[in-house]
Amino acid sequence: MTDKKIILIAFGVTFTTIVFYAICFWGTEVSKNTTDWGAFGNYLAVGVSIFSVALIYITYREQRKTNEITRSEHHIATMLKTLDALSMKNQSRIETTYFNILEHFKVPFYDLSEYEYEKIVKVCIFYYSLALGEKEDSIKLNYYFQYLNLCIDNIIHNKTLSKEQIQLHITELSCVLTEDSRLLFFFWLLISDRIVLDSYYKYGLFIINDEASPLLKDIVSYICSGKCPTKSQTRNFNGEDIILDDYSKEKFSDSYSRMFK
Questions:
Q1: Taking residues 107-114, what's their average pLDDT?
Q2: What is the pTM of this model?
């Protein structure tokens, strides 16, 4: 029940008690007996007490809400500091892995409508697995992204925060993380939890700068929103590059052709 409804109900009860008294004793002379006035005061105090209790309850509830928000803000601040520290600790590993993935999307001309959604996802998962390298690196990145995922969910599903506050904290988190961290997290989610990609994308978690690969930007947008970009370019097809011995440097169009055509 909202504070406004509580006040209206309490005011209604107080007003009703006064009206009821007035109806019952309308037309009678005003008493000069202090005992009668004391009885009237006791009667009126019932309605006033109800209104006072309502105000006290509202004050208590607002104070409790303020305390919960303060605790949430403190917890989020701690999470952001931890994420920043983990990001710095894994920065070299993250940069190397992301560079290995980015090599596949350096295609100047393409037409995304030529590709199927599920097959695009499989190629992206393939690139991520290929880029991980050492098993130890894979495990450490997995722990890092698990914690990042928990932090984001904690912010998004925090009932004490308003939508504006949630967006502010997600934006703050996006600023704390480097672009390669956020995009590697996107590839990690393709394997672990594709359901949340759409909501994360709407919060601006996977924003890519203008200098990044146009193909990668459109693929991230397509996978997260399900909408194929309306303005696509014509891909320059080279039949000699369909099958490559070194898959670690293979372009997206070539991987797609090799795997599905």
A1: 83
A2: 0.70
